[in-house]
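Help needed: design a sequence for this.
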């Protein structure tokens, strides 16, 4: 079952959560107060690099018919598309650079090189997903309406295909996002919803049409004017570059939302939610992966998904320094800081999809203590008053220690030994 009481699950008092909000708010304020030319230079240079890579990729595709040149051009173009999608488009449309007051690098004017319209994406992602993060039946990004990612989602026969569905979703990820934002089901609802859905459909059709024309008509035709290229080779290169971008985006996003430790919540958990509880839910519902400078850049700094969910409007180039302070706050309150290597986090998401392709009755772990679905009920095995200060060590005993103690108790029970 998903978490119904985040305070109880986190083993924090009201005073703890209030102090947590103050400390995390101070981090935000420090960064906002220090924004300046260094940050503006970063995004402008990122845009110059992305555009240079795109031009280089297209020139390479036009320059030679050799297979090596084709692959070099295709990969270069795919890299440019990844950077535009992850580090530029996603972050600009979050409003991370609005403080510059540059009309060309602003959340309200940027239109990215993807099938979804920026208008639809800003609503369903910036507002719905970031406000209702991992709340079942409210956050549309929990499985995207296509995948079973938690035991709280009722098993249906189609979930047997969880793995192949995600493979197809990864290949066409931009279209999966676009159609999810479109909310086609509203066409079959009442008059008000139907009219709004028709407007969204017209907006999507215009953007999708322009995207398809650009990628599969205009650029291939322009490239084929060169004697070293053909229309077919250029069209194929654009298609492959888009697939590479889609698969990469899918992997990065799934690593931030669906590995073990990215918790799910119920609707009741947000009733009367304070700022501290919202911060707490963002920390518990997100996951990071470890990255150096290149992987950080290529992931749009979403290797710091926890920090991004805490501060979605802070510029992405500042999240690495923010992460040091956020991790220190987690240690102070004995909260888990979910992270791991990129391959490991991604493998865990596929493992979760594989497990949840089966009905719950075939799964071994307890529904309250499964790696992909936990709730406060998992701590029923602990003695009353566990949270607080450990009398033996004098250290705070919070969620991180409670999870470890619960796992130790279950291991002892499975091995036939009485828990200590």
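Sure. Designed sequence:
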């Amino acid at each position: 079952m998903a978490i119904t009481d985040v305070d109880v699950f986190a083993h924090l008092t009201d005073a703890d959560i209030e102090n947590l909000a103050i400390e995390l708010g101070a981090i935000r304020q420090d960064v906002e107060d220090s924004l300046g030319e260094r940050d503006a230079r970063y995004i402008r240079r990122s845009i110059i690099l992305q555009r240079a890579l795109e031009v280089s990729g297209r020139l390479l595709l036009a320059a030679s018919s050799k297979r090596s040149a084709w692959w070099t051009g295709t990969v270069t173009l795919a890299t440019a598309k990844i950077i535009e999608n992850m580090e530029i488009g996603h972050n600009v449309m979050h409003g991370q650079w609005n403080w510059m007051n540059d009309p060309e690098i602003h959340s309200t004017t940027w239109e990215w090189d993807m099938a979804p319209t920026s208008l639809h994406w800003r609503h369903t992602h910036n507002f719905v997903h970031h406000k209702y993060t991992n709340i079942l039946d409210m956050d549309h990004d929990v499985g995207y309406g296509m995948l079973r990612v938690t035991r709280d989602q009722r098993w249906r026969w189609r979930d047997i295909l969880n793995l192949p569905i995600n493979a197809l979703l990864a290949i066409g990820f931009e279209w999966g996002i676009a159609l999810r934002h479109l909310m086609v089901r509203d066409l079959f609802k009442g008059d008000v919803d139907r009219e709004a859905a028709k407007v969204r459909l017209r907006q999507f059709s215009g953007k999708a049409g322009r995207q398809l024309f650009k990628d599969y008509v205009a650029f291939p035709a322009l490239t084929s004017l060169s004697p070293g290229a053909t229309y077919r080779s250029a069209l194929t290169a654009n298609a492959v570059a888009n697939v590479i971008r889609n698969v990469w985006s899918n992997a990065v996003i799934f690593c931030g939302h669906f590995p073990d430790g990215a918790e799910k919540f119920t609707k009741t958990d947000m009733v009367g939610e304070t700022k501290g509880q919202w911060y707490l839910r963002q920390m518990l519902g997100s996951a990071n992966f470890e990255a150096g400078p290149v992987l950080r850049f290529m992931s749009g700094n979403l290797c710091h998904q926890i920090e991004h969910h805490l501060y979605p409007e802070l510029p992405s180039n500042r999240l690495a320094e923010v992460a040091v302070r956020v991790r220190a706050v987690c240690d102070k309150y004995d909260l888990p800081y979910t992270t791991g290597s990129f391959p490991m986090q991604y493998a865990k998401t596929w493992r979760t999809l594989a497990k949840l392709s089966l009905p719950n009755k075939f799964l071994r772990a307890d529904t309250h203590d499964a790696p992909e679905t936990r709730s406060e009920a998992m701590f029923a095995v602990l003695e009353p008053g566990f949270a607080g200060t450990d009398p033996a060590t004098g250290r705070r005993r919070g969620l991180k220690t409670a999870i470890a103690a619960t796992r130790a108790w279950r291991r002892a029970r499975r091995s036939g030994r009485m828990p200590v």
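DSSP finds 15 helices and four strands in the chain.
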